[in-house]
Amino acid sequence: ASALELEDLQVLEARRHRHKLRPGKLRGNRFSLVVREVDPAEHEGLRARLDQVARRGVPAFFGSQRFGWQGKNLDKAHRWLVEGGRAPRDRFERKMLVSSLQSEAFNRVLARRLQAGTFVTVLEGDLLRREDSGGVFASENPAEEQRRVDAFEISPTGPLPGPKSWVPDGEVGALERAVTEELGLTEEVLDRLGKLGPGSRRPLRWQLGEPSMEVAEDRVELRFSLPAGAYATEVLRELFADGLVEGPAERSPEEPNEIETEADAEA
Fold this sequence. Notes:
The chain has helices spanning 43-56, 72-82, 91-116, 142-150, 170-182, 187-193, 232-240, 262-266; strands at 28-35, 58-59, 127-130, 136-138, 154-160, 200-203, 205-206, 209-216, 219-227. By secondary structure, the protein is of the alpha+beta class.
């Protein structure tokens, strides 16, 4: 770190800590992003969309980088876990492939709730996450819980399927089961994930911290913070739509990946 040479940045001190920085220790990130060639006529609309995202939250989609180049990690995961193909030798790769399959299931559930207008609505069977502690509990009083969702005290969650994941009941459970069936994630497949992907819940949204926007002709500067696990590209997508942050070979997380099966690969 002390050898870094960056404009407008000086490292004052760098020293080793007694403990390793492990996954899960990062609290969040602060971002300062500059977008150029923005039509000044769009400024007012951008401010309105930024205010809306700050109120309701950022959809917690996993970005395309989660799935590897052109979604190839998801193809590999499906062939290995669902079709019974050979497992990768490297444990890190196995964990990465499991994660891509779990992430796709989450993205599909979130996309359908967005399309149905229930992204921040408490539904029958919802498993809700406390924003302060991260604890998850089952919905019991939707009217009261909706008030807390609106106040950003709690948020609905989606699945990262695994052998130990908490499966919801009711309407939410039906939606999530439909998605896992689409992906071929039977109980037998989920059991095979083992310690590589025991399963958990992920909030459907992230809170946008300290958002601000400054404009100058065709230049827009955005500043905000996000918790660990959130993608700044999802904020840009909410404000500017897909074209700003994805190339033609990539996909929007709101559209499900097309999984290439072994039969497709041999054709």
